[in-house]
Amino acid sequence: MTTRLYNTLTRTREELRPLTDNKVKMYVCGPTVYNYIHIGNARVFVFFDVVRRYLQYKGFEVTYVQNFTDVDDKLIKAAQEEGVAVPELAERYIAAYFEDMDALGVKRADVHPRATEHIPEMIEAIQNLIDKGHAYEINGDVYFRSLSKEDYGKLSHQSIDELKSGARIEVNERKENPLDFALWKAAKPGEISWDSPWGKGRPGWHIECSAMARKYLGDSIDIHAGGMDLCFPHHENEIAQSECWTGETFAQYWLHNGYINMGNEKMSKSLGNIVRVKELREEYEPRALRYFLLSAHYRNPISFRYDTIRQFEGALERFDTVVTNLRHRMEAAVDGEPSSAVEARLKELTQAFEEAMDDDFNTANAISVLFDGVKFANDWVAKDVVSKQSLERILQWFRVFGSDILGLMELEPEEILDSEIEALIEERIQARKERNFARADEIRDRLQEMGIILEDTPQGTRWRKK
């Protein structure tokens, strides 16, 4: 089955055909690390984590690069306000980013390059652009000559006049054209800086990603991705400078996820309505946040509501319960080959899941398939006679699609209870056999205080954590 994705560059759905057979080179713009990330940032990282996982499931060898912008105006301002050095501030929030992403089940990229570790590569790129006439220097600042790229504006699908009307023109700026953007910024007193042919300074925002993408993925890559807010100017400018630098097509496919809204407004720092992941995961199950971020098609806007997250927590209980039920039922199951009916139904579910994901990575539909799997599993758990191997096959299906790809189900080995709890459960089972229900209830209450919930089923007693 062919994977098709929506390419912002062409505004069409296209078949994924990597530059090199069976290998996908993927670059996702990472955070600017001057503060904790918010739930809007997290949508990027969670969704493209799933894209990477799914492509690997499909048999592609994925090289995944996600950068850190660890020097820019925001970092410098925040560091000055806190009275710390820029590298110290960046280090703090890089660590916080990983803490948030680990909680949300986002796997580490193959490479997490930092802008400050790639200054020589950026200087090389900038000098190349100057030599080719695509950039110019004014008093230690270097600007890219946007109109030197004939198709500038092709990603955002705007004309030059439209782009000019939306361009910000800074006071006292002496650019040749309002659309020209900074490749190198001359250092101001007290700012972090590096030596360059144009004097002390630091790189502009856009050149960072071009230099790091080329170093780790080459002149041309397969997928470049990020939030819709990066389409212009960041990604537009990346295309212009990279293609003028290398003479090659920068990226074959451009993917952009939609915004998160708070009520009827877009979530943004300027409106002061952002919600940080660090605070949310202290209040809610992190998997519920991941579920929320995958619950709508990635290109559609999604509205954030606190009560909705609670609903997703409830939905996750269905996933957890079916895993518990399968494992518990296996204890009393008979040995035998997996049922042909199980194999047939799992094949149907697999096909439905792949159809959803191959259709521009529709995670919302893929999650619906997961719930179809839950219903199917519950039907088999309820059967009087079932083979252990059939239940193992169902559990394995959930491991692949619910855990390995979507990251919504937890299928690690069950915890081994400590000896005190094991002894109490065994004592309660014996008390029930002896019809000493008062003692059985007393033990149940004690275990509940310890955070252990007991459930008596026709197949025996099982437990779960609160």
TrEMBL record:
Chain location of the short sequence motif 'HIGH' region per the record: 31-41
Chief localisation class: cytoplasm
Annotated GO biological process: cysteinyl-tRNA aminoacylation
Co-factor: note: Binds 1 zinc ion per subunit.
Alphabetical list of Pfam families matching this protein: CysS_C (PF23493), DALR_2 (PF09190), tRNA-synt_1e (PF01406)
Single GO MF annotation: ATP binding
Subcellular location: Cytoplasm
Keyword annotations of the record: Aminoacyl-tRNA synthetase, ATP-binding, Coiled coil, Cytoplasm, Ligase, Metal-binding, Nucleotide-binding, Protein biosynthesis, Zinc
Enzyme Commission number(s) of this protein: 6.1.1.16
Signal peptide coordinates: none
Reactions it catalyzes: tRNA(Cys) + L-cysteine + ATP = L-cysteinyl-tRNA(Cys) + AMP + diphosphate
Motif ('KMSKS' region): 266-270
Residues that, per the record, bind ATP: 269
Family that this chain belongs to: Belongs to the class-I aminoacyl-tRNA synthetase family.
Subunit structure: Monomer.
Protein name as catalogued: Cysteine--tRNA ligase
Source organism of the structure: Marinithermofilum abyssi
